[in-house]
Amino acid sequence: MSSTTVVSLRGSNVSFKVRSGFGQLPEKILLNIFQYFNEDELRKNIIPVCQQWRTVAENPRLWKILKFTGMSTNTSVICFKIWQLNKAEEIHMKGIKQPLVVLRQICRCAQNIVSISLRHCHEISEDGLRHLIVSCKSLKILDLKGTPFKSLIFYEELACTKNLSNINISENIYVTVSHISSLVVNCPSLDGLHISSFQPINRIFITDGDAYFFLSHISKRLRSLSLDCSNLSTGSFSSILGCKNLEYLCLNFAYNFDGNIFQNLWKTLRKLKALKIRYGHQISDANIKNLFQNGRDSLSNIEVIDLTGCSKLSNFGIAALAICCKKLKKLILRSCKNVFTIDYILEECHDLEMLNISFCKNLQCKYQSNSISLKIMFLSDDKKVIEVGNFLKSKNNNLQLKLCESEHNKNYRKL
User: Fold this and answer.
1) Tell me, what's the pLDDT at 25?
2) How many Å apart are CA 359 and CA 380, to the nearest integer?
3) Which residues fall within 8 angstroms of residue 25, CB to CB, at 6 or more apart?
4) What whole-number distance in Å separates Cα of residue 293 and Cα of residue 275?
5) pLDDT-derived band of residue 6, with 50, 70 and 90 as boundaries?
6) What percent of the chain has pLDDT over 70?
7) In the Cβ-directed half-sphere of 320, how many Cα atoms lie within 13 Å?
8) 49: pLDDT strictly greater than 90
9) Which residues belong to any copy of the F-box domain (predicted)?
10) What's the CA gap between 403 and 406, in Å, rounded?
11) DSSP notation for 223-288
12) What are phi and psi of 163, to 5 degrees?
């Protein structure tokens, strides 16, 4: 409090105390202010200020998304936060120490949760997952990428989940085609299916017949799809492009994706916001150029493009992409070894935040402007790639440079 003196009409001085500074605002007003900050901003910028701000910022009303990462994160802390911030709608966990303990806490304290992501954790039991889907009736998204679990009846019991619409079981060594078949049959609301790069123990991969069966059940309502395409042929790719409501499409190891089919995908997939075609060796630079030139109106809302390992992509395709996709936020050109410049991208895509040019060994950059929207760049330990990264960082000192370790995994470190 500070003291303010006012001179009245009669000449007498009247002193009274008034509040000054944000630190003296009532908690109700602080709560209304803090609601405009996201969870990361609350954690980094608000909570450390003072005890009063910390108390207000930890109000459960402000925390809709919780994130926990790494083996060093104490399990008891995670469980306490789930109990304390029990209004959360999404919980994201990656590589945590005791995932089953945390899942039990979610079942007890966060039964209204809408989205759960449990990625790259130790093997979990089927019973824990069964208890989760029974307890959390509002669950819409279940992401278990890289977290293995064996299943006897879990996929059949998904029939009781009226709201579950999106599931990710990628990189689970125990997944079989039979499991996926049960999944698509038993999930009545499923509109998102992610099973990319899975390698079952008995090495059964998705065939054209399998893909036809899956798509026949969910194609009309499918909005997001990630699929391992290493064994698929032309007919399957045509069926995938017939899913007209797709907003997110990720096709891994698309070795057999015919370029002529690819360049016409704009005719059916008019709602796309994310397009990821990896290792499309049959897709030529001309196919990519035709796609983005002819589909300029249909594909103008795309925000994410990943063309990892598309070996025939070169500067002409990149130029057409840049002119078409003005709203692009993420672009991955990893291992596109015939791309020689990213100037077109920097000149046209002013909302671009993330760019991956790792293993593009012949790259150059002569971008003249000092205005760069980029926040993160992924590089590789190649002289020219490093030079491009350092050149752009000289224009934007806040640009984060990260070094990819290998073409065969996604590990990286800060440069």
Assistant:
1) 76
2) 5
3) 19, 33
4) 16
5) very low
6) 93
7) 19
8) no
9) 19-66
10) 9
11) -EEEEE-TT--HHHHHHHTT-TT-SEEEEET-TT--HHHHTTGGGT-TT-SEEEE-S-TT--HHHH
12) -105, -15
Asked if 359 contacts 381 with a C-beta cutoff of 8 angstroms, the reply is no
Q: What is the pTM of this model?
A: 0.87
Band (pLDDT 50/70/90 cuts) for residue 51 is: confident
Element (H, E) at 103: helix 99-109
Burial 209-248 (b: 16+ CB within 10 A, else e): ebbebbbebbbeebbbbbbbbebbeeebbebbbebeebbb
Tokens representing 312?
Answer: 């025939």
Residue with tokens 């200020």: 49
Query: What mean pLDDT, rounded, does the chain reach?
Result: 88
pLDDT at 202 over 70: no
Partners of 71 in the β-ladder = none
DSSP 16-71: EEE--SGGGS-HHHHHHHHTTS-HHHIIIIITTT-HHHHHHHT-GGG-SEEEEEST
Look-up: residue for tokens 């995932």? 99
User: What is the Cα–Cα distance from 139 to 124, expressed in whole angstroms?
Assistant: 19
Long-range contacts made by residues 378-381, C-beta under 8 angstroms, separation at least 24?
378/332, 378/334, 378/354, 378/402, 378/403, 378/404, 378/412, 379/403, 379/404, 379/415, 380/404, 380/407
Q: 404 and 378 in contact (C-beta within 8 Å)? A: yes
For tokens 């997939």, the residue is 269
Backbone angles phi and psi of 315, in degrees to 5: -65, -35
- Quick check: 197 pLDDT over 80? no
Q: Tokens at residue 198, please?
A: 């899975």
Residue in 150, 145, 218 with CA at minimum distance from that of residue 181 = 218
Q: Give mean pLDDT, residues 90-108.
A: 95
Using CA atoms, how far apart are residues 226 and 119, in angstroms rounded to an integer?
16
- Residue 289's SS3 state is helix
The tens digit of pLDDT for each residue in 205-244 reads 899 999 999 999 999 999 999 999 989 999 999 999 999 9
Q: Which residue has the tokens 């491009």?
A: 388
Over residues 369-381, the pLDDT tens digits come to 887 889 999 999 9
Higher confidence at residue 57 or residue 395?
A: 395
Tokens representing residue 103 in the block: 């899942």
Per-residue model confidence (pLDDT) at position 50: 84
The first and second tokens of residue 374, run together, are 């980029």
Cα–Cα distance measured from residue 10 to residue 390, given in angstroms and rounded to the nearest whole number: 70
